[in-house]
Design a protein that fits this description.
The complex is a heterodimer of chains A (342) and B (395). By secondary structure, chain A is of the alpha/beta class. Chain A is built from twelve helices and 13 strands. Chain A has helices spanning 9-17, 21-29, 61-76, 86-94, 119-131, 146-151, 189-193, 215-218, 237-242, 245-248, 286-303, 317-323; strands spanning 42-48, 103-106, 139-143, 164-167, 178-180, 183-185, 197-200, 203-207, 211-213, 251-262, 274-275, 279-283, 337-341. Chain A starts with 8 loop residues before the first helix and ends with a strand. The model of chain A is unreliable at 1-27 (pLDDT under 50). Chain B has a domain at 57-104. In chain B, strand 15 (304-308), helix 10 (323-335) and strand 16 form a beta-alpha-beta unit. Chain B is of the alpha/beta class and 395 residues long. The model of chain B is unreliable at 1-16 and 28-51 (pLDDT under 50). Classes of the chains: A alpha/beta (342), B alpha/beta (395). Chain A binds chain B through residues 110-112, 145-148, 158-159, 164, 166, 169-173, 175, 177, 179, 184, 189, 193, 207-209, 224-225, 227-228, 230-231, 265-268, 270, and chain B through 39-46, 50, 52-54, 70-72, 80, 82-83, 85-93, 143, 145, 154-156, 158-159, 250, 313-314.
Chain lengths: 342, 395
């Protein structure tokens, strides 16, 4: 396994700059307000395992679990050990949720099996959450629609003393609207009634309207009217949506499944435009994780000889909006993002 | 004016919810008791009546779109011209790209149905005193912050209960309940254009007319083809400024004005409703500009209704439109030379009546949604001075 510890943050950013005009463009797009907390940085852990699939194409669940542990340990302390200990990983999860919590894991299954949140990743998370004290029945894996989840490889499970897994189609949306800024939506009852903790599990892919769709936009799957929020590259709708108190108060962590990613043709799966970074991006700052993921996509696009998203008039401006003085959902200025590679 | 049968009167007056009515109309013709659909508080297995995204009964290839590279499509139904990627939907939420083919998800997928007096649309110059079998699917191509039907207009079809009502069934129900008209209304009929066209055809074959209540936000070709099948059209002109359309409607004014001009050229009987929202579209200059435009582009005989806003959806912070504001709007439009200017949603107001523009005698008296007196002659003239009164007054 390549020892990524030797790559400093500077090298990582340099790689982003190579052939990627986007990083400069991203800096212009992501001018954060002067009043932002000086010196405070957000950490985004990029955990990679080039042997995640062994010599085949299928993810090895054990390696996925180890990758997850390494990422969580790096985010919550414990050093950059090549082999994270389960104890440290469980301790990290205790920082997210405890025995009294109801935890919802918002996966992304719209694109289908090829570009959906990996089932083994979700399984590994559920194991660690239970080891951290959460009851299985208090964990729900969810997305908008149960059929989409099944097509992505999830097995619907309702009731009983087990991890729950179903879509909002089974319970519906709240009758009352929740509104902030330009957004007024009914929220999934899974979010409002089965979650004291929300863990965001997006995938890494581009989007033909928004530019990219990662953690911030994954929340579109929690509302009844996402189609109303696609004009203007989903800006400011994505940012405004993440300001809803029901979401903001619950969101604790984002783990972006970048085991398979897409650089073109999203949101539906286009295998010809996908690649396998075999990575997880983990952060408590969704803006930072989106910015970091965006740069990964731009770098791949440059490798493949494609124009930047800005040049194609679909740069993800919503990321900067999410970081602006009105929203302050996180950092998109690379000088305020500490990317930690493990 | 036809006297209502007892059954029809009961249907009009009974507080039956839309879905219960539709169920009974389709099944037995007997009026069932009203009842709210229970919202499950916990996850439940799929029931036999659950609507799913994969319900093929309602899914047909859409009209009015063009294919693009990489399995994308460009919708040509309304001016948004949504470019929709594979597995995505247009802004309206009821049309979906599947592998480069665009589908309507709501053909025959009726989520709201009722028998309404035609005056409720409001259409005041079209078969007064009659009823319309009024239907809708989910979806809309704008997002008006004051929408009173947002629970269906802003929802995806799989989120709300619906019944399969084929075009022929819709025509049959209209006939069964002595409705001379099918009305496409409640949400936004532009987005279910395919169903609207097929149902209009079925209705006409059975001797039933069709009218549409619409925002008029559509492209020319779809307008001509879809609304060309209508016997009357009511357009909601939300305001007379682009900024209001942008901020409050998330639409555009110019295409709606073009729709009105096109309808006029097509010879379609058209009435306009302007919902007056306090502080947002209620200044005199806007009323005057609107009235001048209507007179210059459509003529003085197009009925214009100024209706009262009630707090709803995302504008619950605003007050009800004061009646003097509506009266001021009417006075300005009258002064600009429009002949038929009404005030709506204010039951009992004298401006709900129709008066002859020549002799000023009252020709149609209305109380709420009921036309209690209709004096216009069979040849559509005033009985007092024989002035021609434009409209479709008799079946």
């Amino acid at each position: 396994m390549t020892d990524l510890r030797s790559q400093s943050r500077r090298n990582f950013l340099a790689q982003c700059l190579t052939g990627a005009v986007a990083l400069g463009a991203g800096s212009v797009l992501c001018a954060e307000p002067e009043q932002a907390t000086q010196g405070a940085k957000s950490t985004v852990v990029v955990a990679r395992d080039p042997m995640l699939r062994g010599t085949g194409t299928v993810v090895d669940p054990r390696r996925m679990g180890a990758l997850l542990d390494r990422a969580m340990q790096a985010l919550f302390g414990g050093g950059h050990s090549a082999a994270a200990s389960p104890e440290n990983a469980i301790a990290a999860w205790r920082r997210i949720a405890g025995p009294g919590d109801t935890i919802s894991l918002k996966v992304n299954t719209l694109g289908g099996r090829g570009i959906a949140t990996n089932v083994d990743l979700v399984a590994a998370i559920c194991v660690r959450l239970q080891q951290a004290g959460a009851k299985a029945a208090n964990i729900v894996v969810w997305d908008r629609d149960s059929e989409e989840m099944e097509r992505a490889g999830f097995r619907i499970a309702i009731g009983g003393d087990r991890v729950q897994c179903y879509g909002t189609d089974r319970v519906g949306y709240e009758d009352e609207l929740s509104a902030w800024g330009s957004v007024g939506s009914r929220l999934s009852k899974i979010l409002t009634r089965s979650s004291s903790v929300l863990i965001n599990l997006p995938v890494l892919k581009d989007h033909d309207g928004a530019g990219v769709t990662i953690a911030l936009k994954n929340i579109y799957g929690a509302i009844h009217n996402p189609n109303k929020y696609h004009p203007n590259g989903c800006d400011p709708y994505v940012a405004d949506l993440n300001m809803l108190p029901e979401i903001r108060s619950r969101m604790k962590l984002a783990i972006c499944d970048a085991t398979t990613a897409m650089y073109e043709g999203g949101p539906g799966f286009k295998p010809e435009h996908s690649w396998k970074p075999n990575s997880l991006l983990v952060s408590q700052d969704l803006v930072a994780i989106d910015y970091t993921g965006w740069q990964m996509i731009e770098r791949k696009r440059a490798e493949m000889g494609l124009k930047t998203l800005e040049a194609e008039k679909r740069a993800p401006h919503y990321i900067a909006t999410a970081a602006d003085g009105e929203h302050r959902l996180g950092h998109c200025d690379p000088s305020r993002i500490a990317v930690v590679e493990v | 004016m036809n006297a209502k049968s007892v059954a029809e009167q009961n249907l009009v007056d009974a507080p039956i919810d839309r879905r219960a009515f539709l169920l009974c109309a389709l099944a037995s013709g007997a009026v069932l008791g009203a009842g709210e659909l229970a919202a499950p508080a916990a996850a439940v297995p799929l029931g036999s009546n659950a609507e799913t995204q994969s319900d093929t009964r309602f899914t047909f290839e859409a009209r009015f779109y063009e294919k693009l590279p990489n399995r994308k499509i460009r919708c040509k139904l309304c001016p948004r011209e949504c470019i929709v990627g594979d597995k995505e939907r247009g802004y309206c939420g009821v049309r979906e790209n599947r592998g480069g083919i665009y589908y309507t998800l709501v053909h025959s997928r009726v989520c709201a149905a009722h028998i309404d007096p035609i005056e409720k649309k409001p259409l005041f110059h079209y078969l007064p005193g009659t009823t319309a079998f009024s239907i809708a699917t989910a979806g809309c191509n704008v997002n008006c912050k004051f929408c009173q039907n947002w629970d269906i207009s802003q929802s995806r079809p799989e989120e709300i209960p619906a019944e399969y009502v084929s075009p022929h069934q819709a025509a049959a129900v209209a006939l069964q309940y002595n409705c001379p008209t099918i009305a496409y209304t409640y949400s936004e009929p532009v987005v279910f254009a395919e169903y609207l066209m097929d149902t209009a055809d079925a209705g006409h074959a059975a001797g039933v007319r069709s009218i549409v209540v619409s925002n008029g936000y559509m492209q020319h070709d779809s307008l001509v083809e879809a609304y060309g099948k209508m016997d009357a059209v009511k357009i909601d002109l939300k305001a007379f400024t682009e900024s209001y359309y942008t901020k409050v409607v998330t639409g555009q004014l110019k295409p709606v004005l073009e729709t009105l001009v096109t309808l006029c050229k097509m010879g379609k009987w058209t009435e306009i409703v302007y919902l007056v929202v306090p502080t947002l579209n209620d200044d005199d200059a806007e009323f005057r500009g609107l009235a001048q435009w209507v007179k210059a582009n459509l003529g003085p005989d197009v009925p214009l209704h100024f209706t009262q806003f009630h707090p709803e959806y995302l504008l619950k912070n605003l007050p009800i439109t004061p009646v003097p504001t509506l009266e001021r709007a009417k006075a300005i439009a009258d002064a600009e030379g429009l002949h038929y200017v009404y005030i709506g949603n204010v039951p009992g107001h004298p401006a709900q009546n129709t008066y002859c523009p020549q002799c000023r005698k009252m020709l149609v008296e209305r109380a709420g949604f009921t036309a209690s007196q209709m004096l216009i002659r069979k040849d559509s003239t005033c009985p007092f001075c024989r002035h021609k009164i434009p409209g479709i007054w008799h079946a």
